[in-house]
Amino acid sequence: MRGLRYLGASALLTLSLALGSGGVALAATNSSSAGQSASTPISLVDGQTVSGTLNGSASGAYSYYSYDYPGSDSQDSFTLSLNTNDPSVANAVGIILWQNGSQVATMNAVGSPVGINTMTFNSLTAGPILVQVYDYTGAMPVSYQLSFSGPNTASVTPANSTTSPSSTTSPSTSTKASTAKPGTAANPTPLKGSMAGTLSGSTAGSYAYYTLPYPGDGSIPTVNLSFSPNDPATENALWVVIYQDGNQIGSAQGLSAGPPGQLSIPYSSTTSGPVLIQLGNYTPGTTISYTISQ
To answer: Which CATH number goes with the domain that contains 214?
Structure first.
């Protein structure tokens, strides 16, 4: 995940001005500056596909889109497609969803196939959603297509309207409104596409469980995790362990992340059958936001 740690000072300032402390209606514009900042996002409507090109930067290059989200657990879908299947590029390009100044979901382009990934998002909180497309490749131009499907959503209200989100959402509330509904070890959630969620920390460990089928052919797929916050304390206390038939076949600690906040966990087996993915947070008092995918 490309979280707040990745945003440069100018990007943070722009987000702060656009979103405010409690969230404000986002501007809909067709000017030449449309989509270039958080204060001038391009409006999205259900069924729309938009495209663009970002010239990557180590500090991040961005495009911005927005729409009004109705709340009520309505499910939205985002598919990001790149003009390359280079894994390192796909890992550095993705999207972040913001609501009321808080990050509520994120996804990079490491999907199956690499360079295409899909994420679903649902929440109980109504209000504008800011969609930030990012590119951290470092001076490499990357073209993308972003397809959006959002039942019962509409384009955002122009900035001169007095409309505001229907409720003021604190960071803790918006974290609860994440996409994934993680299961238990006995009843794990099937991992389909990209799933966003949150996990509170505990000294004894708090866990979320997902499952995937595996053909037992010795292939080496990966589970990809984006998470925030990605400070050293959180990275030290975050673990992903992959099991099959009670045997560990893959694992990674948050500290082993390549780009901060990004983990890829390979696994392999010669046994056919489901694998169990255990995400553990051992940081007391800290809730992580994450997106998990294969």
So the answer is: 2.60.120.380
